[in-house]
Amino acid sequence: MKLYSIISNSCVGFEIHRKLYPNHKYLNPLIGSCVYNDEQFLDFAERYDTFKHMNMVECKHVPTFIPLPHPSVDPNHPVCTWGCLDIHWIHETNLQTLLNKFQTRLERGKYVEPLFIMSTTEMFQGRRDDLIKRFVKLPHKSILITDEPKDLELQCDQNHTILLLQGTSTQPNIINTVIAHASTSSLFN
Fold first, then answer.
1. Containing domain of residue 122, as a range?
2. What is the pTM assigned to this prediction?
3. 90: number of CA atoms within 13 Å, CB side?
């Protein structure tokens, strides 16, 4: 199976990496984070080749509104700025550990092809159709998981895929939709 740096705007990237590559270290510097601003995530994905050569600018603990509250997420989690991207480290508490993991994973994945994954059910704010159109035209390969059959009508090339979510819009179903696709797709073989 082809090895990618799986990058997503939520924890699904971490889970998909674990299932596809159980014996590989993480190649994505955003493991354990969420990006709550979809526009920022797309700006980042469109300019990823520039971002991977940039340093983290600032990190701090700040009280944060969490769009999809979860009992395991501390609203006072670290938030870091990387270029134009505000990264919410919802599974980290120690800033130095976080920065070390980020830098190690960034270096490890710098020369591995990225694969961007996003689910429409995990988009955090407006202009859904515009965001989807941008996502399926990224300069790197991408997979969009949607809960709307009409999205399958969008034209994609061989580097971009739209998958219809199987089941309810839970993270396990999003992950399983990608895993099922990976077993049959030329993208991964």
1. 5-182
2. 0.89
3. 19
